[in-house]
Amino acid sequence: MQLFDTPQIAMVDADVQYYPNWLGISDADAFFAQLKQNLSWSQDYIRIYGRDVKIPRLQCWMGDPAATYTYSGLQMQPVGWAEPVKQIKDYCEQVTGHSFNSVLANWYRDGQDSMGMHSDDEPELGAQPVIASVTLGEPRKFIFKHKQLGIKHEIPLAHGSLLVMRGTTQQYWQHGINKTKRVIDDRINLTFRHIFNN
Ligand SMILES: O=C(O)CCC(=O)C(=O)O
Ligand SMILES: [Mn+2]
Questions:
Q1: pLDDT digits (tens, 9 = 90+) for 54-76
Q2: Full residue range of the structural domain in which residue 175 is found
């Protein structure tokens, strides 16, 4: 393998791989269309200072029945695996050598949809979780920020790409997707996880 083919991203205190052209374009296009149409997308809310505030994107939590997940104070019961998502999960398991029992799908409808800076470090993900993140549609800038050093690392996640985070990545880094004023198309992101419920 040639050096420039290595998927490893050089980041301190992290273990991150990025595969820009992971799904071929035609598969990525097909998955994008299928997921938009067939997932049961919902507008979820989080409670901030006693008010219900719309999450700025649509979501769908999918997985094995036991994989319930609490996200920003929201308890989520997974819907069953949709066939195309199951197929992408199988590819992710082959590449990472890890098994996933759940996925959070996010649909960013335009530049006003976003995700605040956070770490995927909920107790049910266990220590040093492996997270496989697949992007379909409009590329958006994925921003990493080191919790202590304040340094940033940005990756413009491409259509059909795979980003894998492991090891101490969640412990030392936050990540998120900012809003943009640019007029852009929509994007779906799938983050595959393994939930340990007792
Ligand atoms: O949309 C993305 O790339 C980020 C999604 C994410 O961080 C999450 O679902 O926890
Ligand atoms: Mn995340």
A1: 999 999 999 999 998 776 666 77
A2: 3-193
The counts of H helices and E strands in the chain are: 3, 15
The pLDDT of residue 4 is above 60: no
Question: What string of DSSP letters covers 89-130?
Answer: HHHHHHHHS----EEEEEEE-STT--EEEE----GGG-SS--
Which ligand gives the minimal distance to the CA of 161?
Answer: 1
CA of 176 to the centre of ligand 2 (A): 7
Could you read off the pLDDT of 27-45 as tens digits, one per residue? 999 999 999 999 999 998 8
pLDDT value of position 46: 85
CATH number of the domain residue 154 falls in = 2.60.120.590
Cα–Cα distance, 177 to 63 (Å, whole number):
24
Ligand 2 center–CA 24 separation, angstroms? 24
Residue 198 lies in a domain: no
Give distance in angstroms: CA of 131 to centre of ligand 1: 10
Instruction: For residue 177, give the ligand nearest its CA.
Output: 1
Tokens of 167: 């090891």
Cβ of residue 175 lying under 6 Å from some atom of ligand 1: yes
Statement: residue 3 has pLDDT above 60: no
User: Mean pLDDT across the chain, nearest whole number?
Assistant: 94
55 touches ligand 1 (CB under 6 Å): no
